[in-house]
Amino acid sequence: MMLAGLALQSVVAQTARKITVNLTDDGKANIVGYLPVQPTGKAVVGCPGGGYSGLSLQNEGHDWADYFNRQGIAYFVLSYRMPHGDRTIPVGDAQKSIRVVRDSADVWGINPYDVGIMGFSAGGHLASTISTHSEFAERPDFSILFYPVISMNEKETHKGSCVNFLGSEGQKDQQLVKLFSNQHAVRRHLTPPAIILTANDDRTVPPVTNGVAYYTAMRKQGNDCALYIYPTGGHGFGFKSTFTYHDQMLNDLTTWLQRHQGPKKNAVRVACIGNSITDGFGIDMATQQGYPARLQRLLGNGYHVKNFGVSGRTMLNKGDLPYQNELAWRDALAFRPDIVIIKLGTNDSKPENWQYNKGFTDDLQLMVDALKANKNNPRIILCTPIPAFKPTWNINDSVIVNGITPIINKVAKKNKLQVIDLHTLYAHDGDKMLNDAIHPDAKGALRMAEIIAKALKETE
């Protein structure tokens, strides 16, 4: 209780301005914004609960304004329309709310890369849906989920929320039920960090099959996620001071928010594009221990590094798993990076993929052209693949050296791009590999980050 009080006393305690923005012409969907006197740049869009049949606008909405504004956080209460079986209605309202906040970032003193979403109960389902199903521009940078509905299986969650969101016919479609049971929609690196707060005795939305299930999916993917389960409190405690653990809950949330600071608004954005080596395959908590995360720490807070690696992917568009078909590729473009580091080619060396080798040059050029056409006209850096110390999974180091590397150098020369020869610079680091001798371990990820950071700084 004292910690929460001290944290709140150290910041300004008033709202500078209250605004209302209609999201629909008739005003049935809107956001009411509370802008702090001394903004930090962080913003939260709040989605009240109500079983997708109504909205708990006070306890799970407006009552939170002072809490956030005291910390310099802009806060917006979203009044979203009810689905009545058409899930696109509330989803569209929530997506538009994120876009409006980001589009108005300069006017409202907000960092567009530090916009989060908060949801309670069914609003938690809506918040987790936006976090897992939306494109980059509409996806929040972090999620706060209170006793969230996560599953759409009425046998393990709040039945009314399921029926209202999917409709009675939708409930019969098991593929649709699974699609919007959001523990199944969590994506490695791409689903934003989350904090989940719930009560052990919640019998309306059982924690194990909802909040805990989401946490489990996030942890399995190595994503940043925290879970707080209070002994009692039931369902719907929201901002109620009568909730036994109210002060502890606020302290937990305040601490989490303070430790999850967004990047500087003008930070240099770095997109790391690649396969499983970029993704961090085999490294526990790769979001924090993979090479892009290590690169972030080496470069410092003047940079904003994001991991867009996807395991098993190829540069070849005729390969078995083309990178340019991935959501991560769309995300990388939407990120509007200032610097792009491309490290693909390892999986292309497999015989089943390299049979289409004539397309490698064109497919790499296609990627370069798409990045050049991006608004930022980024600095593009091509990396040769690190050595394949063993031919695991048919990966062929000879093809990497004699087939792929010359093409990378050729495309780089044509487009006047920088090349980092990871194959040579990492050649003596075979002791920093997993047992498959293809993927770096945590020490290897650090070594890769050091090589790339040095190359970046030498050419600044």
What layout of secondary structure does this protein have?
Elements: H1 2-9, E1 15-22, E2 30-36, E3 43-47, H2 65-70, E4 74-79, H3 88-103, H4 105-108, E5 115-120, H5 122-133, E6 142-146, H6 159-170, H7 174-179, E7 194-199, H8 211-220, E8 225-230, H9 246-259, E9 268-274, H10 276-279, H11 286-289, H12 291-299, E10 303-309, H13 327-334, E11 339-343, H14 351-354, H15 360-372, E12 379-383, H16 397-415, E13 418-420, H17 422-425, H18 442-458
Parallel strand pairs: 3-4, 3-5, 5-6, 6-7, 7-8, 9-10, 9-11, 11-12, 12-13
Antiparallel strand pairs: 1-2, 2-4
Helix pairs in contact: 1-9, 3-5, 12-18, 15-16
Structure description:
The protein has 18 helices and 13 strands. It has 460 residues and is α/β, with parallel strands linked by helices. The protein has helices at 2-9, 65-70, 88-103, 105-108, 122-133, 159-170, 174-179, 211-220, 246-259, 276-279, 286-289, 291-299, 327-334, 351-354, 360-372, 397-415, 422-425, 442-458; strands at 15-22, 30-36, 43-47, 74-79, 115-120, 142-146, 194-199, 225-230, 268-274, 303-309, 339-343, 379-383, 418-420. Helix 12 (291-299) crosses helix 18. Residues 1-12 have low confidence and may be disordered. 37% of the residues lie in helices and 17% in strands. The strands form two sheets. It has an eight-stranded mixed β-sheet with strand order 1-2-4-3-5-6-7-8, sandwiched between helices.
Question: What spatial form do the alpha-carbon principal axes imply?
Answer: globular
Low-confidence runs: 1-12
Total count of strands: 13
Whole-number mean pLDDT: 95
Radius of gyration: 23 Å
- Terminal CA distance reads 48 Å
Trace the largest sheet across and list its strands. 1-2-4-3-5-6-7-8
Largest sheet: 8 strands, mixed
Secondary-structure-derived class? alpha/beta
Number of helices: 18
Helix % is 25-40%
Strand content: 15-25%
